[in-house]
């Protein structure tokens, strides 16, 4: 089988490049956010993995934390909450959110930063 060269329009080329960049960014985020442990290491990870279902107390604590986070997120102003949800929870970039809303990237970054700060303050008051 031989390689063939195919000419494509600039729009198609840009979409291919954007797709590749998106894929690399996703792989980078996945690597950054996943715990990198060796199951051969004696760090107690095997025990944590083998425990299975959480105890009723752990389940209730997780559920309570979820409700606290949910209520705190919903207590933010609408735009700020939407941006925190998009950037922090869904992992969208500031640039993507800014494009979708038609605003500057720095505006989204500041909004998310203030939103997370407000959530921290509310969670400290809640506990």
Short description:
Helix content is 72%, strand content 0%. It is mainly alpha-helical. α5 packs across α6 (105-126).
Task: For the structure shown, list the relevant keywords.
6 helices; single chain; 127 residues; mainly alpha
Set out the fold topology.
Blueprint: H1 10-33, H2 45-50, H3 56-75, H4 78-89, H5 94-101, H6 105-126
Helix pairs in contact: 3-6, 4-6, 5-6
Task: Describe this structure as you would to a colleague.
- This protein is mainly α and 127 residues long.
- Helices cover 72% and strands 0% of the residues.
- It is built from 6 helices and no strands.
- It has helices at residues 10-33, 45-50, 56-75, 78-89, 94-101, 105-126.
- Mean pLDDT is 82; it is low at 43-48.
Order of helices and strands: HHHHHH
- Average pLDDT confidence is 82
Measured between the Cα atoms of the first and last residue, the distance is 65 Å
The count of DSSP E runs of length 2 or more, i.e. the number of strands, is: 0
Structural class, from secondary structure content? Answer: mainly alpha
The residue fraction in helices comes out at over 70%
Number of helices: 6
**Mind summarizing the main beta sheet?**
none
What's the alpha carbon Rg, rounded to whole Å? 21 Å
Globular, elongated, flat, extended or rod-shaped: what is the shape? flat
| Unreliable parts | 43-48
